[in-house]
Amino acid sequence: MGASFALALRANGYAGRLIGISRSAETLRKAQARDLVDIVSSELSHAGEADVVVLCTPVRTLITQIGQLANLCRPGAIITDMGSTKTEVVRAMDALPAHLRAVGSHPMCGKETAGIDAADASLYRGAPWLLTRTRRSDDEALSIVRALAERVGATPREIGVEHHDALLAFASHLPYALAVALVTATDQFSLNQPEVWQVMAGGFRDTSRVAASDVTMWLDILLTNADAVLGAVRDFQFTLDQFTALLERRDEEGLRAFLAAAAQARKTHFR
Amino acid sequence: MGASFALALRANGYAGRLIGISRSAETLRKAQARDLVDIVSSELSHAGEADVVVLCTPVRTLITQIGQLANLCRPGAIITDMGSTKTEVVRAMDALPAHLRAVGSHPMCGKETAGIDAADASLYRGAPWLLTRTRRSDDEALSIVRALAERVGATPREIGVEHHDALLAFASHLPYALAVALVTATDQFSLNQPEVWQVMAGGFRDTSRVAASDVTMWLDILLTNADAVLGAVRDFQFTLDQFTALLERRDEEGLRAFLAAAAQARKTHFR
Q1: Domain Prephenate/arogenate dehydrogenase, which positions (chains A, B) (predicted)?
Q2: Measured between CA atoms, how close is A99 to chain B, in angstroms?
Q3: Rounded to an integer, what distance in angstroms lies between the CA atom of residue B55 and that of residue B78?
């Protein structure tokens, strides 16, 4: 996410100085070789030079880093992030000293492949970019983060922090849980029926795609939004039970209405 | 499926005469205007002229049509189909008179959009095409259907009928059920939280895609493979319960192992 952001800023004419910080020497070497940023560093302390710090690590890592930045950033600096859950992130931002500013931020894009080798200047184009106010947000900080989002082609949208996590539990975390469980159940089934992997077509491929995503990123998302995710899974199980009951009864008209309503909703909300 | 098959046969140099049969006058008019086939007809009885009849209707419709073809086809004619379930189709083929031949057939491709307007000459390219023997199959009939599949770029593969339906319950019908239940649960949630549809990204889009597919086609698939689908859904629910239990306990290491195994399986079986 960070390398793509640097690429996208440069591709869209951003003239400011970019500092790339990573623990990985290989990532830093590649960033330098490809001229992705002006300065590379393995030390978070380099963030002390920045006007805006964009944390692109997994959610629980970035929460730790917010605490570390409290003693590193200069007065007036803006800390923001790219985490997919916001409640715990914003709580950490709220606790920052009053001379720092912070805006919760969530660009809604990604790939199954993470890391600098998958960097893509067009990753953010057309993506929703959700912004959440914190106790350390002022209007200027919000408009600066908003402008960065617009610079890379995303569409910023402000949203309350709890609202964010409740919506994302359905829009993103539940689909991931289903993809993981689908692959796991099929993998179990394949112990006796290995040919199942040879008869795969587009439906399974698409439905399971997100299960291949970065595990540490998702572990942090699930653990920082567990209650909302568990609620969404329960709602889903209730709905799946309705489907099962219709099929068990061979209730043709009920099943047709159930499938038709879902097809209609999918077509209405996605082009 | 039928219009795409005609297009694909022509695009790949098939020189035989093509007869297109549909109940829809509009489909026939379009087929004629686009020169998709040599002859158009609204009457199934025209299939009596064919050496090979390819039924591309929903599964329960094509089962009825197999019965009708018993009195229409000429001796030695080969009846095949494109249905996504095989047990009930093959049962109908088994009951055909001994002067007819029949091969169960399932090209594993498709789109959310059905009908002649979505016809696509490349639809079958690279797709697995499953073939099932019936009591009315001989080696010549099998090799003729196999050659048609290869002609349009698909990869034919023979499979037993019950095996087919058990595998497809996981590989195709379960993902559809999950997509439908995901959209339905989210649609219910959106009654109180309509903004959920505004924060959608790639994960939900992909996981739910197949829910937009043709309802009549899927209703027939589910009703002709109900027991295997119900079994796959039960296996899935058991797996989802394991996920839920790990998340409820905030079992970080257990959850990490669960997610990592799914990511590994997904990456192993899909490029």
Answers
A1: 1-271
A2: 32
A3: 11
